[in-house]
Amino acid sequence: MIFDNHNRPITYLRLAVTDRCNLRCFYCMPEEGIKYLPKAQLLTYEEMERLVRVLAQLGVSKIRITGGEPFVRNGLMGFLEKLAHTDGITDWHITTNGVLTAPQVPDLVRLGVGSVNLSLDTMDRERFRQITRRDELPAVQHTLDALLAHNVPVKLNAVVMEGKNIADIPLLAELTREHPIEVRFIEEMPFNGEGSHYPVLNWTHRRILDELRTLYPDIAKLPDPANSTSYTYQVPGHAGTIGIIAAFSRTFCGTCNRIRLTAQGTLKTCLYDSGVLDIRALLRSGATDDELKAAFLKAFAHRPKNGFEAEQHRSPVTESMSTIGG
Predict the structure, then answer these.
(1) DSSP strand E in 148-238: where?
(2) Where is the Radical SAM core domain (predicted)?
(3) Virtual CA dihedral for 217, 223, 228, 229, nearest 10 degrees?
(4) Helix (H) or strand (E) holding 245
(5) Cβ–Cβ contacts within 10 Å for residue 48, how many?
(6) In principle, which of 48, 65, 73, 100 could form an S-S bond with 18, CB 3.0–4.6 Å?
(7) Helix (H) or strand (E) holding 214
(8) 93 neighbors 64 (Cβ within 8 angstroms)
(9) HSE (CB half, 13 Å, CA atoms) of 243?
């Protein structure tokens, strides 16, 4: 196991396999989209496989595949097949918007996916179209049904957006009554290609909890898993749980065990940094595995204490979440 300079273990890699997406979510990118990277500037699957092996040798045991939308990249299932059999990787997960995912669910189960994070900000088709700028809610609901039918652990991620989906908080929370899923409400972050949408973030984790308490006065706090980014709650009698993620308030930094690799091979030791190491350049310059390990360890030894410190050492946030892997 490896530790950073604040004695936090690093065991979890979020790996973006693409910066492309088939939705245009309000909180993730401008309506016109972003300028996607040429294929040659993205890590190849072979490069990603090598980096996963190297990081596993350093102590990383958990992988989450992100994007963009992972399923828009050709050949993903073949990559997941190899990932699932990598020595040292004990569990792997995937985050998806669900538009293309339903047909892949049986193979995800066969490969032993640990869980699926499904992005779903609203249960209303028109609000979905307004938020994502695409009319794809039926496809996402089909994916949710398929995941539940195959008993895949599901975390349903909903970004709480003022003036966009506040009416969906009770609708989404109510899904936990009958279904053994975790519905997670997330503070909106400024990673949308434009910067912050609001002068002040009104829908903080505290306000989200207050709203839930008005709906469910007996909602109870549950113990949070180690290194969790989410505060976990349950309504008595409900099959599932409710989580609140203080992504903008950054209250969970003290136990952060995760690092990120963007699709172009940039290492981020904090979501809010601007990238601390160009891994792609090292790979393509002929670096050995030992040299890669040394570069990773040097970066981990200079990790910011929290997201606020990381943000102080960069220009204002303007990139899209689609480019950094979330």
Answers:
(1) 154-160, 182-187, 220-221, 230-234
(2) 5-226
(3) 20
(4) strand 241-245
(5) 23
(6) 73
(7) helix 205-215
(8) yes
(9) 22
**Among 235, 93, 225, 90, which Cα is nearest to 157's?**
93
Which residues span the domain enclosing 109?
A: 2-324
Q: Angle at CA 179, nearest 5°, toward 177 and 181?
A: 105
- Mean pLDDT per block of 10 residues along the chain (326 residues) reads 94 96 86 77 97 98 96 97 96 98 98 98 97 97 98 97 95 98 92 69 95 98 93 98 93 92 95 92 98 98 92 72 68
Q: How far apart are CA 146 and CA 325, in angstroms?
A: 24
Region for 195 from its dihedrals, namely left if φ exceeds 0, alpha if ψ lies in -120 to 50, beta otherwise: left
| Alpha-carbon span 179 to 37, nearest angstrom | 39
- Residues 6 or more apart from 215 whose CB is under 8 A from it? 169, 170, 173
Q: What is the CATH number of the domain that holds 6?
A: 3.20.20.70
- Cα-based distances in Å from 256 to 155, 187, 219: 19, 17, 26
C-alpha–C-alpha distance, residues 137 and 119, integer Å: 11
38 CB contacts (<8 Å, ≥6 apart)?
A: none
Could you tell me the two tokens for 13?
Answer: 């890699």
The encoded tokens of residue 239 equal 């099959």
